[in-house]
Specification:
alpha/beta; binds zinc ion; TIM Barrel; five-stranded parallel sheet
């Protein structure tokens, strides 16, 4: 039985997945790419279609550096407030854009505001997506609570198979940049591998396997 939205992956691998929402953004997405490069880490970027139209070069840079691009809808609506057909279109438009810019089809999806209903689940499943949440929701990096807070609350959630969420789009993300910089240093010191969500999923073990 798969859980509807995945906040972590059950794995023996000493690896976790950092994810970045609401980009691409010409400043912060590129900043995150530089930070990741320093530690040879990979991450997953849940992009908004509208933003992809504005910054296609950033989309290509993320892809060419080996990171994963996930679907975060086209216009970032509350999906439970729109019709099932509109929801389908939100995912499809962004999927087409990702394919156009990278030649790849996205396999992971994160609903805006982590908000969904049965229709959203059905649309996501029939399009072949895994719906991805995150463990470190208390970090609340979107609200700019201070880099120290973002770092502390994220570090509390570090273990094998964790999925951590940050934002590289919408507004000033300098606190996130600082916190992620610190986190990457400590994670590489502790020997964690930073992998894409799909790579983490590939190491997923069924309950009872260990
Ligand atoms: Zn979002």
């Amino acid at each position: 039985m798969l859980s509807v939205i995945l906040h972590q992956v059950h794995t023996r691998r000493k690896a976790l997945a950092l994810t970045f929402d609401d980009g691409p953004n010409p400043i912060y997405t590129r900043g995150i790419l530089d930070l990741l490069k320093e530690v040879s880490g990979k991450a997953t970027f849940f992009m908004i279609g509208e933003q992809m139209e504005n910054y296609p070069d950033v989309v290509r840079a993320v892809d060419s550096e080996g990171h994963e691009i996930g679907n975060h809808t086209y216009s970032h609506p509350y999906l439970s407030r729109i019709s099932k057909d509109e929801c389908k279109l939100e995912l499809k438009r962004t999927e087409i854009l990702i394919h156009k810019l990278t030649g790849k089809r996205p396999r992971v999806f994160r609903p805006p505001y982590l908000e969904y209903n049965e229709d959203v689940v059905a649309v996501s499943e029939s399009a072949g997506y895994r719906m991805i949440g995150a463990l470190n929701l208390d970090a609340q990096d979107w609200g700019q609570p201070g880099a120290g807070h973002i770092f502390d609350k994220s570090l509390e959630c570090v273990r094998n198979g964790s999925i951590l969420m940050f934002h590289d789009g919408y507004g000033d993300r300098s606190q996130t940049m600082q916190a992620v910089g610190w986190l990457l240093q400590i994670l590489s010191t502790k020997g964690y591998q930073l992998v894409t969500v799909s790579e983490l999923l590939a190491s997923e073990q069924m309950r009872g396997e260990d």
